[in-house]
Design goal:
The chain is elongated, with a radius of gyration of 33 Å. The two termini are 44 Å apart. The longest helix has 37 residues. 45% of the residues are buried. It has 815 residues and is an alpha+beta fold. The strands form 3 sheets. Strands 1, 2, 3, 4, 5, 6, 7, 8, 9, 10 and 11 form an 11-stranded mixed beta sheet that branches. Strands 14, 15, 16, 17, 18, 19, 20 and 21 form an 8-stranded mixed beta sheet that branches. Strands 13-22-12-23 form a 4-stranded antiparallel beta sheet. The chain contains 26 helices and 23 strands.
């Protein structure tokens, strides 16, 4: 132990004598380790352990319904109970539904995000309340609207109620309904939808009273619920999946009218569709891989610096060997210096990760959802950083240390003076490290280039509607206690008032907005004359809209008519479909007048509109249909006002809020944004990858160029005498420039060639994320190769110029 502290003190003294060297190494390591710590913190928070504070979170899985076409969807409450009660491989299950709620009375209210949960929710999760209690055994029964109780999040308890220790038993109003607070959730718990943070938890069976909607919990055909389950100890996901599929098959037979053709699956949380992990998983893995490449480049750079430093310390090490020090003792001393540098770099990397932690969340488009912090710096992340730092120290320190003590003592003493030149083996090692850096930088830059092109092409793609100059204002009128008719009246008055504002061209509304993070709503269809195949997915997405929506969105009407005010619940049921609907179900035949069945009703097609994009900008257009808001909405239906403006849409927001408040001041507008910003969700992966990989790629380019520069500059410093002799024998400055630049360019070209081979093998994994660009795009590869070549030329030319200015007499006299 004493020898360790002796080595550590000596390492600190040696680094103190070279503060410039130490600062460069620590800063380089901070960048590499900080990037990897940040990416790992995101992966830990989103994929590996997203449910903080939950008991046995590593055994949590998602149960999802599977359609005939293989699409995963949510589940019904009855199906949830069957899985919970019948599955022997599960240690319990819970169901839940997110919902915006109004907290407060008519005169003073605020919008909060609630999670309506099955009664066993907190007991299943194994949480302990920060104050009060959770739902009692009596409150966990399944009587509809029988238990108006609520559990607050720790954040809401602190911000709204000043951490009142006597909060239990107090009454609050949610959607103008009285609820009794019974407890507070622990501080680290944010809910069970990955990446979202909720303010309040209420029993799922209070849904009807809270929203004024229908009692779909007792309808096996209604499937709005995510299901979270926990595997029993020792049970594998595959075993639970097989059992759940068996139960689903039994339900498909027993309840053919609602479950025929449906199955179910069990997935690890990281693969579930409900939560931000479904959007971020691939991006996070790409960033982790890119961060790993950056760290390898850093390690190669630091190893090069240590090799150069070891050469300059050759006489010192030879003397110590001659005085009796063992080679193992010297290797340990040199490794201690490397590990000290790594620990200092790791500490600086943690500080950098704390600063960069929220950068991923800053890239998120406007969603209206309660997005939680997507970064974590807990014990697991810190342990990862420690192991990464030690591992990096061993990687960049071992080779220089072994090289430094290699060779005979007498030869080392003879070569350890100032006239010593690096051995051929040393030059080869340093050259190989530079080649690796250039190759890795090319891979990172190619990835960035592909995503930049993909993002630009996605932005320019045709959405089928006109998103510019449209303001969105989200409303959830059920939070104000409105019934169905009151919602109609409010929306009619709001539409009239807003449309009359100066600068407003048109005003409309819809239940769903295209190209956001939310997939929207779908229904099961039976189309007259169409016989579905066994693999057909008859669950088709739809939207509830009023008359004038197509005009505002500038979606062309191809045939038939738009909806009118006469299309209400007293009129025949009607629908408008898109062209993809006609191609799939009607074989291109005339659609007007044809019928299909959904909600147990026959709908007549009265209009046909052009295809537009609803969920993604790429791929073939999907079948879609629209129905009149006045016919099919209910009291719990949320809407987004669509306001087309003559100028910047955000400038109209104060006037819009004023008009809404004039109708009813208790109505809260939320999720206000432009349609352009909202549909940024459809290019989020491309945009985030482009921005983050561009930063990492630029860092890789900088590090690779510094590595090449240092190798060439060090080589010139060691070959000063040789260059002086060449010039004394008649070599011209141009010859010296050619010699030195040629050395650097040879390394760069070799690295570029190796990087192209590696990139061709790796970028194919990006194909599914790219839009309108091939993963092997020749222009991108060529452009990055030329950029690297140009940077390498500059990195070689600067020291080459210095070499060409060497005075032969001065060089020979110095040596």
């Amino acid at each position: 132990m004493e020898s360790f502290w002796q080595d550590l003190r000596y390492a600190a003294r040696m680094l103190g004598k070279n503060p410039g060297f130490a600062a460069v190494v620590v800063l380089s390591l901070a960048l590499g380790i900080g990037a990897n710590t940040t990416a790992f913190g995101w992966i830990e928070a989103v994929l590996r352990n997203p449910l903080q504070g939950v008991e046995h979170g590593d055994r949590m899985v998602s149960i999802e319904t599977v359609t005939q076409s293989g699409e995963t969807i949510d589940s019904s409450y009855d199906d949830y109970r069957d899985y919970r009660d019948k599955a022997r491989s599960l240690d319990g299950a819970v169901a839940f539904k997110d919902r915006p709620l109004s907290l407060g009375n008519e005169n003073s209210s605020e919008r909060v995000w609630g999670l309506m949960v099955s009664g066993n929710y907190f007991q299943f999760l194994g949480l302990r309340p920060a104050a009060g209690r959770f739902f009692s055994a009596e409150e966990q029964d399944e009587k509809p609207n029988a238990h108006p109780v609520a559990v607050l999040s720790s954040g809401l308890w602190k911000s709204r109620f000043n951490s009142d220790p006597k909060i239990s038993g107090k009454t609050i109003k949610l959607n103008r309904q009285d609820f009794t607070i019974v407890g507070v959730a622990p501080a680290e718990f944010q809910g069970t939808i990955v990446g979202l943070s909720f303010d309040i938890y209420v029993p799922l069976r209070m849904y009807t009273q809270l929203t004024g909607g229908g009692n779909w919990l007792d309808d096996r055909g209604s499937r709005p619920l995510p299901i979270l389950a926990r595997l029993k100890p020792g049970v594998r996901v595959e075993e639970a999946r097989a059992e759940i599929q068996t139960i689903a098959a039994q339900n498909a037979s027993a309840f053919a009218d609602t479950n025929q053709g449906l199955s179910a699956t069990v997935l690890p949380l990281a693969q579930g569709r409900y939560g931000v992990q479904s959007h971020l998983a691939t991006l996070l893995h790409i960033l982790m891989a890119a961060g790993g490449m950056i760290l390898l480049i850093v390690c190669a750079n630091v190893a090069n610096l240590l090799l150069a430093r070891a050469t300059s310390r050759q006489r010192e090490l030879s003397v110590r060997l001659a005085l009796g020090a063992s080679r193992g003792r010297l290797v340990r001393q040199l490794l201690t210096e490397s590990l000290l540098l790594a620990v200092l770099g790791g500490g600086a990397g943690v500080l950098l990760a704390m600063w960069m932690g929220d950068s991923l969340g800053l890239l998120l488009p406007v969603t209206g959802l309660p997005v939680a912090r997507l970064a974590r710096l807990d014990r697991t992340v810190l342990l990862f950083t420690v192991l990464l730092s030690v591992g990096a120290g061993m990687v960049f320190g071992l080779l220089p240390a072994l090289h430094a003590v290699k060779g005979g003592v007498h030869e080392s003493l003879k070569e350890g003076g100032r006239s010593a030149t690096p051995s051929g083996r040393s030059r080869r090692i340093r050259g190989l490290l530079v080649v690796s850096e250039v190759g890795l930088a090319l891979v990172a830059l190619v990835g960035a280039g592909l995503f930049i092109q993909s993002f630009e092409k996605a932005k320019e793609s045709d959405t089928g509607f006109e998103p510019h100059n449209v303001l969105l204002v989200s409303l959830q009128l059920s939070t104000s206690g409105y019934d169905r008719q009151q919602i109609f009246d409010f929306l009619r008055r709001a539409q009239e008032r807003i449309a009359a504002l100066p600068g407003v061209k048109a005003a409309s509304y819809a239940e769903d907005v295209p190209l956001g993070f939310s997939m929207g709503s779908w229904e099961t269809l039976e189309v007259d004359g169409y016989v579905p195949r066994s693999s057909d997915n008859m669950k088709i997405y739809r939207n509830l809209i009023p008359p004038g929506y197509f005009d505002l969105m500038r979606i062309p009407l191809v045939a038939g008519r738009d909806f009118t005010e006469r299309d209400d619940d007293k009129s025949p049921w009607v629908a408008v479909v898109n062209e993809a609907f006609v191609r799939r179900f009607l074989a291109g035949r005339e659609p007007i007048g044809r019928k299909f069945n959904t909600w147990g009703r026959n709908l007549t097609i009265v209009g046909l509109v052009k295809d537009s994009r609803y969920h993604a900008r790429n791929g073939a257009p999907e079948p879609y249909f629209y129905v009149p808001f006045l016919q099919f909405s209910n009291a719990s239906t949320g809407v987004a006002l669509h306001i087309r403006t003559a100028g910047q849409p955000e400038a109209m927001l104060p006037a819009v809020r004023q008009q809404l408040a004039a109708i009813d001041p208790s109505v809260t507008a939320f999720g206000t944004t432009s349609l352009d910003d909202y549909i940024g969700a459809s290019t989020y992966i491309q945009k985030s990858a482009a921005m983050l990989l561009t930063v990492l790629g630029a860092l890789a380019l900088l590090l690779a160029s510094l590595g090449l520069y240092s190798v060439v500059a060090y080589s010139i410093a060691q070959r000063t005498r040789e260059i002086g002799i060449r010039m004394a024998l008649g070599a011209q400055r141009a010859d010296i420039l050619k010699l030195v630049v040629g050395q650097g360019m040879a390394l760069a070209v070799t690295g570029v060639a190796a990087g192209i081979v590696a990139a061709l093998g790796l970028t194919r994994f990006l194909s599914s994320l790219l839009f309108g660009v091939s993963a092997t795009d020749p222009a991108t590869f060529a452009g990055v190769a030329m950029l690297l070549a140009a940077v390498a030329l500059m990195a070689s030319y600067v020291p080459a110029q210095r070499a060409a200015r060497v005075d032969p007499m001065v060089a020979l006299r110095y040596e």
